[in-house]
Amino acid sequence: MLDPVLIANAVVSGLLLGCLYAIASMGLAVSFGMLDVVNIAHPAMMVLASCVIAALCAPTGFDPLLAALLIAPVFGLLGAGLYRLYHLYFERRGDEAMQGLAFFFGLMIVIEVSLVLVYGADQRWVETGYGGLSLGLGPVGLPLRMLLPALMSLACIAALLLWLRRSFTGRAVAAVAQDRDALRFLGADPIRIKTVAFGLSVALAAIAGGCLIVVQPVDAHSGHVFIGRVLAVVILAGLGSLPGTLVAALVFGVIENVTATLFGPAWSPAVAFSLLLAVLALRPQGMFGRAHA
């Protein structure tokens, strides 16, 4: 007989895990779903941010979540420069499909090799004052090392959605993938808008890296675990649907955690990705994508 307390804890832990998947996927939802730039190096950028934050926080005792907010603008500027290179050598020439994908694959390898050379193959970890604490809601436990990153993730996602809907630049980001010429009539440069948006996606990777280093140790190859998951979340939601990305990430996290609790960790990826295949078979545009006539 199933223990309801065990299931409740698994669901709550899955929601907290889903928040991590959400902030990890949100940057890719912007670059892939809205800009049509398949940045498969996004998880590697997240791990790079985790390692940088660990290097900053370990000797100083600074909180990694605050450090993530501080380095996010730096990563955003690096992302903006990276998109300019991508546009100059691939997108402008019409080679963004396969050669552009190879560019980001190569970037992912460069990041991983650089992390091994600088930090070695050992795992990186940041000790926090709240790492071993937990908040109890009746029989359900909320570990602060999961809860605080989840709250930060939700706050950043809410700020992103608000910016996209309320600001001119945010609305232009949503429009640039749909009708670039119409955007020019409004006096906006599509390349500048895409540069801003891609920089924002990399800044979100830095914030996700801060959340990740609080939740678990990382090494140079930790991004491999997230490549399939973030792509699955973005596709499951429907390309370009940021609220859908949040919901899909939460669903993904709950299914993985409940499956791991009931049947063992080895089953959780299989069940979660089976859901992705089932949804795509029944609704190819994703859960929140728009059907095409």
Low-confidence stretches: none
Q: H/E series, N to C?
A: HHHHEEHHHHHHH
Mean pLDDT: 88
Number of helices: 11
Main structural class: mainly alpha
Helical amount: over 70%
Q: Give the CA-CA distance, first to last residue.
A: 47 Å
Strand order within the widest beta sheet: 1-2
Oligomer: single chain
Task: Please state the CA-atom Rg, rounded to the nearest Å.
Answer: 19 Å
Instruction: Tell me the number of strands.
Output: 2
The major pleated sheet works out as: 2 strands, antiparallel
Shape: globular
Quote the beta fraction: under 5%
Overall description:
The protein has 293 residues and is an all-alpha fold. It has a domain at 10-118 and 142-227. It is built from eleven helices and two strands. The chain has helices at residues 4-34, 42-60, 64-91, 98-119, 144-166, 168-176, 180-185, 190-215, 223-237, 242-263, 268-282, and strands at residues 134-137, 140-143. Strands 1-2 form a two-stranded antiparallel sheet. Strand 1 and strand 2 form a beta hairpin. Helix 2 (42-60) packs parallel to helix 4 (98-119) and helix 6 (168-176) packs across helix 8 (190-215).
